[in-house]
Design a protein that fits this description.
single chain, 817 residues, alpha/beta, Rossmann fold, 2 domains, 10-stranded mixed sheet, 32 helices, 47% helix, globular, binds (1S)-1,5-anhydro-1-(3-chloro-2,5-dihydroxyphenyl)-D-glucitol, Glyco_trans_35, glycosyltransferase, EC 2.4.1.1, transferase, glycogen phosphorylase activity
């Protein structure tokens, strides 16, 4: 065991109220030449952010110096998306100064919540994958693990969503407009990234063959670092995001303004496609840009340590989050061989030891393929190296495996480069993100590779940052937990299990119900303010929040809502407990079908919400611009969690975990991590319905599904589908027809009609169960108590031990308790 060079002090008592006010006053004066009392919210937010940064900067420095001094193995998490949301309150919580700051501001009659609202969400991601990366950043720092994020600093994050006449409209997300208080630009760490040109081999002065490149375009990658503050442990890791600039030496070289703009705009926008790869030149350039910059800075760090190359895999682990950063593999090969004259064999050995890869989907359209001509033209050296990796792969497998298998698994097939194949072949670990998903990878999607490299495949079930998704977003529930089971759960989510001892305690159940009610009232207020819709806060709050995708089946939810609507209309006395159906979902701007579903949900909402005979038995609320901050408002208020994707399609899901943690009860198919939620809470505490993954595959096999048959034999389905085209729902002529066609003409790709009855039956049971308040509360308690197993802390520790082989800083002590 090593002795630490510095002692990092973390946790409570880092700063007193007096010190904080003094620092804040100084910053307001220095930055704006005014007093705290005269500052606007924006000015105060910035001054406070600067003050907070000043508090953790020393720890940031010390953390880094410690890693250097101990030469600890580092992991670099390469992700084209990060979705941290707002950082003010999470930084305060993790520094242990949330209450001090709240009280300090109160002295100036400033509400911390108002200041926190000023911060723009950092939304440099689409959904699950990007949010997972940010939960991991939080968990890695909080577990004291030496880990860094590496990504892109997009000028514009994911678009802002508005509804106009029920249609999604996309507006640019100018998150940097007022500056970003958390980032530090590091000019001294900038590197150049080369694109295009002509590449050929030529003998060098020492006689060895070298690579010569001519007519390349050279861009500057400038890093902006953001501190990732660990929870009460004094550790601050780094998320490094790269931004493009045109080096002054290159200014004269562009043939046209258009050409200049392509490069200038390289890091301008995040591609808004979730689980759908679109082969655009600029996207490929983005991928190479942050990969090359990141690998260069890693190698620069490693060179500082002064070790021979064979030590690289003892000091560095690189994680490839989905295939977007898969060029890490040929780029590391390039740097080792071209810049340091390492042999192919040694470079390949090191590369595969350093790299690991996570697969996040089985959806074919999300598996990236790049046309060889694009790669050849825009990244010629990458193309050469990939071609050689592919060639050697085929040679090395010949005679061991049959030719057809080799053909199916090689990297270059026809005119396409298969990035997942590159990631698997060039790394030592491939993992899925939930048990079922990992099993499907082995059995179906990547079965060929599983036969070749069985030892490389493993599962790492996703997890969530319990700090953001419970401690920060749900204070009422957090207080009940403190009072009931003590505070250890705040450090150790597994301790939520202690709550199981209170499942029959009426006082605890009542307190949980009250906490939920408070959050529902807050959300009801927000709903009224933003949409004008008045909802009954004692109704069941039924929530489906996730990207809009056919496979996630928001439409199935709507079909059930329409069934209820017709039932109440026909029989206003029907025993339906009042329910508010809440949706939050963005559709990729190019995904027409998803946008049609948004339009139709909005039109049904309009119809139902204004129907006097329905009253408050049924309300439908589609909240616009679903993002991390909105999730923090919705999730604590949810009674029901909708996780109804077609079995086999959702790799894991993570909103399912967040909702469970906040006491919502899940209605779900046996898909993704829902299976593990069911295992954790037991069949009595979850509403499972629908086809299993095996049944779905059997339908594919036998091709014996007929959606039209369901339509013709099931009068309720008939009635509900007709409503889309017979004018009962106004303003959806085109969209209604499109949806009915998708179900009947194109045979319902995601089996909505097949699962409809089972879904309605589960919903009816749930509706019944809610009316027994004690029973429901107990069920909710059991969900909370068992949610600790989905902690990102636990997940990253598994990555650290099984894949990255990294250890926590101060493995021998425990700071900050
Ligand atoms: C994404 O968010 C996911 C998969 C993917 O291929 C691309 C993107 Cl942008 C999601 C999965 O759909 C979801 O099931 C999973 O929970 C999440 O990644 C994190 O693993």
């Amino acid at each position: 065991m090593f002795q630490s060079v510095f002692v990092i002090k973390g946790g409570k008592g880092m700063i007193t109220k007096k010190q904080l006010i003094k620092e804040l006053r100084k910053n307001v004066q220095e930055m704006y030449a005014i007093e705290i009392e005269d500052a606007t919210e924006q000015e105060l937010f910035f001054s406070l952010g600067t003050t907070i940064k000043g508090i953790y900067n020393k720890n940031w420095q010390k953390t880094w110096n410690n890693y250097l001094a101990e030469e600890q193995k580092q992991v670099y998490y390469f992700s084209i998306e990060f979705l941290p949301g707002k950082l003010l309150k999470s930084n305060l919580l993790n520094l242990g100064i949330l209450e001090v700051v709240r009280e300090s501001l109160a002295e100036f009659s400033v509400d911390l919540e108002d200041l926190a609202a000023v911060e723009k969400d950092m939304a440099l991601g689409n959904g699950g994958l990007g949010r997972l990366a940010s939960c991991f950043m939080d968990a890695i720092a909080s577990s004291g693990l030496p880990g860094n994020g590496n990504g892109i600093r997009y000028d514009y994050g994911l678009f802002k969503q508005q509804f106009v006449d029920g249609y999604q409209v996309e507006l640019p997300d100018e998150w940097l407009r007022n500056g970003n208080v958390w980032e530090i630009r590091r000019d001294s760490k900038a590197v150049n990234v080369h694109f295009g040109g002509d590449v050929y081999m030529q003998p060098k002065s020492n006689g060895k063959l070298g690579v010569v490149a001519e007519n390349e375009t050279i861009l500057r990658a400038v890093p902006y670092d953001t501190g990732m503050v660990g929870f009460e442990n004094g550790i601050v890791n780094t998320m490094r995001l790269w931004s493009v600039e045109i080096p002054s030496s290159e200014e004269g070289k562009y043939r046209s303004i258009e050409e200049r703009r392509v490069f200038e705009d390289l890091t301008a926008v995040l591609y808004p496609d979730d689980s759908n790869a679109r082969g655009r030149l600029i996207r490929l350039a983005q991928e190479y840009f942050f990969v090359s910059a990141g690998i260069q800075s890693i190698i620069r760090y490693f060179k500082k340590l002064n070790h021979p190359w064979h030590v690289l895999s003892e000091k560095v682990a690189i994680h490839i989050n989905d295939t977007h950063p898969a060029l890490c593999i040929p780029e590391l090969m390039r740097i080792l061989m071209d810049e340091y004259e390492v042999s192919w064999e040694q470079a390949w050995d090191l590369t595969s030891k350093v790299m690991s890869y996570t697969n996040h989907t089985i959806m074919a359209e999300a598996l990236e393929k790049w046309p060889t001509y694009l790669m050849k033209r825009s990244l010629p050296r990458m193309y050469q190296i990939i071609k050689e990796i592919d060639r050697r792969y085929v040679v090395s497998m010949s005679g061991i495996h049959d030719a057809a298998l080799i053909e199916r698994t090689r990297i270059i097939q026809g005119e396409d480069i298969h990035m997942a194949n590159l990631a698997i072949i060039g790394s030592h670990s491939t993992n899925g993100v939930a048990k079922l998903h990992s099993d499907l990878l082995k059995a179906v999607v990547l079965h060929d590779f599983y036969t070749i490299y069985p030892e490389r495949f493993n599962n790492k079930t996703n997890g969530i940052a319990q700090r953001r998704w419970l401690q920060l977003s749900n204070e009422p529930l957090s207080r009940v937990l403190d009072e009931t089971i003590g505070k250890s759960w705040r450090h150790e989510p597994a301790d939520l299990k202690l709550l199981m001892n209170y499942q029959n305690d009426p006082i605890v159940l009542e307190k949980l119900a009250k906490a939920k009610q408070q959050k529902k009232e807050e959300l009801a207020k927000y709903i009224q303010e933003t949409t004008g819709i008045i909802v009954n806060p004692t109704a069941i709050f039924d929530v489906q929040i996730k990207r809009l995708h056919a496979y996630k089946r928001q439409l199935l939810n709507l079909l059930h809502i329409l069934k209820l609507y017709f039932e109440i209309k026909e029989n206003p006395q029907a025993s339906i407990y009042p329910r508010v159906f809440i949706f939050g979902a963005k559709a990729a701007p190019s995904y027409a079908y998803a946008k049609s579903i948004i339009k139709v949900i909005n039109e049904v909402a309009n119809l139902v919400n204004h129907d006097q005979t329905i009253g408050d038995k049924l309300k439908i609320v589609f909240l616009p611009n679903y993002n991390v901050s909105l999730a923090e408002k919705i999730i604590p208020a949810a009674d029901v969690s909708e996780q109804i994707s077609l079995a086999s399609k959702e790799a894991s899901g993570t909103s399912n975990m967040k909702l469970m943690l906040n006491g919502a009860i899940t209605i779900a198919t046996l898909d993704g991590a829902n299976v593990e939620i069911r295992d954790a809470v037991g069949d009595e505490n979850i509403y499972i319905f629908g086809l299993t993954e095996a049944e779905v595959y059997a339908y594919y096999e036998n091709k014996n599904y007929s959606a039209r048959e369901v339509y013709e034999t099931n009068p309720i389905v008939h009635r509900v589908l007709n409503a889309f085209v017979d004018g009962s729902i106004p303003n959806i002529e085109r969209e209604g027809q499109e949806i009915v066609d998708s179900l009947l003409l194109y045979n319902d790709e995601y089996f909505l009609l097949r699962d409809f009855d089972a879904y309605c039956e589960a919903q009816a049971r749930l509706n019944q169960a809610y009316q027994d308040a004690t029973h429901w509360q107990k069920c909710s308690l059991i969900n909370i108590a068992n949610a600790g197993t989905f902690s990102a802390d636990k997940t990253v520790k598994q990555y650290a031990e099984d894949i990255w082989q990294i250890e926590p800083l101060f493995a021998h002590t425990h700071q900050g308790r």
